[in-house]
Amino acid sequence: MTDMNMTDRELHEECGVFGVWGVPDAASLTYYGLHALQHRGQEGCGIVAVNEDGILKRVKGEGLVTEVFNEAKISTLKGSMSIGHVRYSTTGGGGIENVQPFLFHHNTGDFALAHNGNLVNSAQLRKYLEDRGSLFQSSSDSEILAHLIKKEAVDRKKPRIFAIVEALNMIEGAFAFLIMTKHRIYACRDKYGLRPLSIGKLGDGYVLSSETCAFDTIGAEFLRDIEPGEIVTIDRHGIRSRRYSEYQRHAMCAMEYIYFARPDSDIEGCNVHSFRKETGRLLFEESPVDADIVVGVPDSSLSAAMGYSEASGLPYEMGLIKNKYIGRTFIQPSQAMREKGVRMKLSAVKTIVKDKRVVLIDDSVVRGTTSRRIVRMLKEAGAKEVHVRIASPQIKAPCFYGVDISTYDELLCAHKTLDEVREYLAADSIAFLSDKALFAAGNRCELCLACFSGHYPTELYQSLEEANRDGKF
Ligand code: SF4
Questions:
Q1: Domain assignment of residue 295, yes or no
Q2: CB within 8 A of 251, min separation 6: which ones?
Q3: Ligand 1 atom at minimum distance from 174 CA
Q4: Is 172 found in the same domain as 40?
Q5: pLDDT of amino acid 106
Q6: What is the mean pLDDT of residues 135-146?
Q7: Contact residues of ligand 1, CB 6 A cut-off
Q8: Long-range contacts of range 161-166, CB-CB < 8 Å, 24 or more positions apart?
């Protein structure tokens, strides 16, 4: 799979969240933080800030962070507390009403909410809440938590933190939530540990981010990851921690390491570039091949290609070049233009690959259409042989946790034998990394590998057949 162009990625992460507590001009810092998380979602973004009068104000819109915000808009968001969100839509679809953070006005106090992930029992909870009078502003399942919190706070007259604990115990799935009231920010992670969320320190204040790369962008110091099942409260009393669930796993989404996260991020103590490089090294150990050069698909496969090259002693070459300047609004070449040879996003470098036996390293195969195009491109540029090595196992099952690996029908490896996959890609040989090597690469004993193995860490509430039939996943 390649990320040749944001709009051409075969896999999409649902979102990224970023928060600032106790730092002047928090909204500007959130803008830079969201910009560093842009790879996690390009469809929409928003920031909510709390001003000196305790009023929560929001700016949001569809598009990239640089398209939605400018200095004038940021200057309307005053104060030292803010949370932000970048969105790619899966559950709930697109549309401005689904762009977060959500902002709720209520007699128990206003609050804002930003969510990365996907709830697996959202249909049941939405019905439960609507039957009891809730009116939803959006089709996003992220709003469900807000309604549950409000309901708990009103029905049982509980302080907000207890209402949050109760609400979190009702939802199931993958989540990293930031909830902001006029005094504090709550940050919570699902008890399975599927989505990342970290805390950093900046001056006298704190920052929260889906990925640590955003801390480096704003000069913050990484403090620690939020634990699965933990709620961290940040306010004028400092940081406090509590658990909403005694159940705890560390089933981090393997795709965060393989593809989504930026290489300069550290997730649960493991640097993403180092993880990918190690998968490349292990891929060579498991599946060596006689060849002349190693070429990685830019950008997410380059670290694994370096690892394969180092382990094999084969030179690592820039056999594929990505055009970095294609924006979302670029007019994509039509079929007729493509037939004329117009390839705007990725090019094979003829002088490098001509007459060479190429090991092509890619991070994963979803539908396989992009990989097939790349193999053809290398062959047309004169490569003598193309040996495909994939730095992850075969994707065979849908994801229910906020990644748009949709129906079985779309997944190349779900229906084909290894040799049929090789044939479809027109490769001279093909091999995938083992599950075991993924654990070894991260030095971990637990990861979510559900889209490879079909073994889900949570209950699903909907059968796979139903999900597939609905086309929801
Ligand atoms: S199913 Fe795959 S993409 Fe989804 S959370 Fe698990 S590892 Fe990540």
A1: yes
A2: 192, 193, 194, 446, 447, 448, 457
A3: 5
A4: yes
A5: 80
A6: 83
A7: 194, 253-255, 399, 401, 403, 405, 448-451
A8: 161/186, 161/231, 161/233, 161/242, 164/188, 164/231, 164/244, 165/231, 165/242, 165/244
CA atoms within 13 A on the CB side of 127: 3
pLDDT, tens only, 209-242: 999 999 999 999 999 999 999 999 999 999 999 9
Q: Kindly give the distance from the C-alpha atom of residue 102 to the centroid of ligand 1, in angstroms, as a whole number.
A: 25
127 and 218 in a single domain? The answer is yes
Cβ atoms of residues 166 and 152 within 8 Å? yes
> CA 188, 192, 196, 201 torsion: positive or negative?
positive
Q: CA neighbours within 13 Å on the CB side: how many for 287?
A: 20
Number of other residues whose CB lies within 10 A of the CB of residue 168: 24
Q: What is the mean pLDDT of residues 251-279?
A: 97
Q: Tokens standing for 159?
A: 């302080």
Residue 387 lies in a domain: yes
Decide if 166 is inside a domain: yes
Residues 245 and 277 in one domain: no
- Tell me the torsion sign for CA atoms 166, 170, 176, 182: negative
Q: Are strands 102-104 and 81-87 parallel, antiparallel or unpaired?
A: unpaired
194 CA to middle of ligand 1, Å?
Answer: 8
- The verdict on whether 253 is a catalytic residue reads no
The pLDDT tens digits of the residues spanning 3-54 come to 433 334 456 666 999 999 999 999 999 999 999 999 999 889 999 999 999 9
Q: Tokens in use for 44?
A: 């929409």
What are the CA-CA distances from residue 114 to residues 117, 146, 372 (Å)? 10, 10, 37
For residue 324, give every residue at least 6 positions away whose Cβ sits within 8 Å of its Cβ, in sequence order, or none.
none
Give CA–CA dist 148/112, Å, rounded. 14
Residues 288, 243 share a domain:
no
Whole-number CA gyration radius for the chain: 23
Give CA–CA dist 364/391, Å, rounded. 6
Q: Could you give the number of structural domains in the chain?
A: 2
Q: Which of 15, 45, 413, 451 is catalytic?
A: 15
The predicted pLDDT at position 8 comes to: 43
Length of the chain equals 473
